[in-house]
Specification:
2 copies of one chain form a homodimer. By secondary structure, chain A is of the alpha/beta class. Chain A folds into 2 domains: about 80 residues, Winged helix-like DNA-binding domain superfamily/Winged helix DNA-binding domain (Arc Repressor Mutant, subunit A, Orthogonal Bundle); about 110 residues, Rossmann fold, CATH 3.40.50. Chain A is about 50% helix and about 15% strand. In chain A, the strands form 2 sheets. In chain A, strands 5-6-4-3-7-8-9 form a 7-stranded mixed β-sheet, with helices on both faces. In chain A, strands 1-2 form a two-stranded antiparallel ribbon. In chain A, a hairpin with a 2-residue loop joins strand 5 and strand 6. In chain A, helix 3 packs across helix 4. At the A-B interface, helix 2, helix 6, strand 7, strand 8 and strand 9 of A face helix 2, helix 6, strand 7, strand 8 and strand 9 of B.
């Protein structure tokens, strides 16, 4: 894998985030019937720069034409090759509360090679059921199921107090990429990637900036 | 407001994110009976550096003692003064699906001055009800209710296709800070802050890095 530019070299996560976003934007443009797109257009939608878009496209091995732009389908295909697993990748979801269910409902069928294949909960009412096409197992079976199914991606959607224990079990089972939705920082070994989706922080941040901006409007420059 | 250091100057969002995280960490330390903390300890928990912690603490007006560290309660109080609204701040939630309900359940009672005070949905079964202590209104009343209640913070938890329209209505009603949970980039006027909580992107990123790391383990250095 080659990163183009020193910024990408130091923050590969940001590159992956942008590439994931480009695909979503391109999917919706294609849905609206747009077949080609210029780097500055895509940059406008993604709130980046045209240079950054072109650099990201070089990273995934696509060059556009200055006169005609990129073919949207070419970009979507190249992003798929770069970002997606060549084989179906199973995801384990731990915690089948409202948040867990929202994620199950949202993900089923959206990416053919990224599917929630096993869910876990402590509640006896949920265990043994099939929710959104996904089998619900007792939490005690977590490591065994994750290991047997070769699952490498886990979503932690349990309360804060249980999150570290769940993460430890997922990692012991073989998970190497975690999405943490619990409002707590997880400690994982060096070989494991964690993305923290921190809704509390986002809301506190939105409230802080809303106040700053409302304040500015009422008099300050 | 003063930002200490040029990094904070260029990325104030990151400072707010860290300060929000410190509070969560300090709350749990306090719960475990720890009364004082050193900058390097807090840095370890927040995965930052001691220098950064000390700089962030100067931003919120707290200085620690090299010999005794910081008093946890002093930090929690100072963070509250810096981050929280001095008066109750109402939040509007749009979309009462699984994700919306998860957010309602999670937030009620957690921050005294940041409360979801109005929820909106198109579903006649939800409108008129009180869910998790919060009144559910029809979507058509969005602008009016937001304006009348002086709400400045909004959470967008609707499907992608409806998200931009909802954001436009929130902004017209007076909202200046948005948390967007829909898998689409929102366009808002310059005076409005948006935080995108992108669960799809997080999962695609976790899967990508899980694959890279699993690959490395199986042979590469």
């Amino acid at each position: 894998m080659e990163w183009v530019g020193d910024r990408a070299m130091t923050t590969p996560e940001r590159v992956i985030e942008r590439i994931s976003l480009y695909r979503r934007l391109l999917d919706s443009l294609k849905g609206e019937g747009q077949a080609t797109i210029f780097s500055h257009e895509l940059a406008g939608l993604a709130r980046g720069t045209a240079t950054q878009v072109r650099r990201d496209m070089m990273t995934i091995g696509v060059t556009g034409s200055p006169a005609h732009g990129y073919r949207a389908q070419d970009l979507i295909d190249a992003i798929g090759l770069y970002l997606d697993s060549p084989e179906p990748e199973g995801v384990a979801l731990v915690g089948i509360g409202n948040l867990g269910r929202a994620i199950m409902a949202f993900f089923q069928g959206r990416r053919p090679n990224l599917r929630i294949v096993a869910a876990f909960d402590v509640s006896p009412e949920k265990v043994g059921r099939v929710i959104h096409g996904c089998r619900c197992h007792p939490l005690d079976d977590l490591e065994r199921v994750v290991r047997e199914e070769g699952i490498r991606v886990g979503v932690v959607a349990v309360p804060a107090s249980a999150a570290q224990d769940v993460a430890d079990r997922l990692v012991r089972g073989g998970v190497r990429g975690l999405v943490n939705l619990a409002p707590v920082r997880l400690h994982v070994p060096p070989g494991v990637h964690t993305t923290h989706v921190d809704i509390t922080m986002s809301l506190e941040k939105a409230a802080y900036f809303a106040r700053q901006r409302a304040g500015r409007k009422e008099g300050e420059p």
